[in-house]
Amino acid sequence: MTHPSIFRSLRILPILLGLTFLGACTPDEIITPGLEEPRDLTATYTWQLDRWDNAEPIGSPRVELQWSIPNEWRGDPFRVYGRRGAGGPFNLIATVTACSSGLCTYLDTNVRSGETYHYYVSAVDERGGREAESSRVQANVPVFTVPAVPTDLNVTGLDGMAFLQWRQSAAQRFRVLLQVGQEYFDLGETDSQSFLDDRAENGREQRYLVAAIDTLGHFSRLSAVVIGVPRPDYHAEILYPMDVNAAESGFRFVASPESQDPVLAGDAPSAQWRLETINGAVTIRPLGATRVTQGTFTTALSCGPGAESDCIDVKQAPTASAFTDAPVQAQTASTYVFRVTGPESRTHYAKVRVLGTTRDTLGRTVLVFDWAYQLRADDVRLNVGVAK
User: In angstroms, how far is CA 233 from the centroid of its own chain?
Assistant: First the structure.
């Protein structure tokens, strides 16, 4: 007969064996999960402007690396490896310890034009001495041609604003600067060949310069300085499309802009027309009984004393068949004639000449235009009256 103590020993043996195997592992090996590699690594070439030196842009080429952190990231560092050219070993070039919003970034400033650079990033398990590598990416640092300098700058002083225009058709965008003494201050960027400085002060001389920027961020030299002096008058007007700024998208022709603001909300009952964006184009939409023409190319709102011999303007309203109640696209250098109902419920005529579509300092699309309003009811002449 087998003694009962032997059965107890047999039951305890598997437990002891299990404890023996567990004791052969360290605590870290039990709780450490598998190491995940960094995800979605990208390498993007940029050119960084550092400062201006006598109108010359001073800066350097850079490659920005960006990647997503692993799902099970525990705050361990990442190691960045790189090499120049297709051959040779990768070298450790940086250790990144801080990331935010699920993304990590490293800027490699030790690059040269005309070279190709290869990179990968490793997640690091410092306790286990392990690394998990990302996919490999490359960035080409080009030998570039400096963009052409913007030319033919001119500035129109408005009421508390300055409207700049220039020529340079090849650049993707432009940086507008204000010169104060020997210092330059960035006002903003635009993708059109014009800019509205809506922070200018009346009566104060403003000195503007413009630089062209290509698709890779390379800057041209600064343009020549153009000087403008904003003034409190009514030689121009600005209006926004309703989808951009509804509160300043509507317009009504008035006899005295000093006593009654012609700009109002696009859905205001007294608005005679407003701006809208239709299929990407800034468009005039007549409201109520208002009618408008398709627009005519002109060189000025009105050709008065001192005008050039080849000056072109609209001197009177056309016949009724030329007017429409349909939306009309606003074209630069075109004059549009309006037929509206005046305050005495009689017909009045007005004209608007578009100076251009640009962007303000907040990047919002804005239309700049001149206008004139015939005060006499039923008078088709448009070369007299209150002019803007």
Answer: 30
